[in-house]
Design goal:
This protein has 159 residues and is mainly α. It contains 7 helices and no strands. It is globular, with a radius of gyration of 15 Å.
Length: 159
Amino acid sequence: MSRLPRPDMKKPVHLLAFGFGSGCAPVAPGTFGTLAAVLFYLPLSRLPLSLYLLVLLLVILAGIWLCGKTSADLGVHDHGGIVWDEFAGYFVTMIAAPPGWQGIILGFLLFRLFDIWKPWPIRWLDKGVQGGLGIMVDDLLAGTYALVLLQLIHRLYPW
């Protein structure tokens, strides 16, 4: 089995794309990246919704470039350690999230479920779209699925 190329964490693009090092975890880098995203979500959750959405848009737009550039630098499409897309996907999940730790944990679990499972059309997009957008799009859609389910669960079973 060949080893994946290592990022140069002195390069800001690699540092960001690898989630400040969380994507360098030897196992389950996507899960560790999402855990790191939770830490960044905590202060973001205090923003008004309009500002949260603006930050999310910037995260997505930056992510398309960051993921594409890092992928090109490393010569590997969607290197497993690139987790900026997990940050963006989790932030999508948490749009107008119900308050409290229950929402944070359930959002984390739902996002990871859809990101790993990749129900249609997530898997199709993951395989069919290239570059930075291709790296981001499956996580954004997984985040959207998780967002819808999180909101539905909270409406049916409020905490």
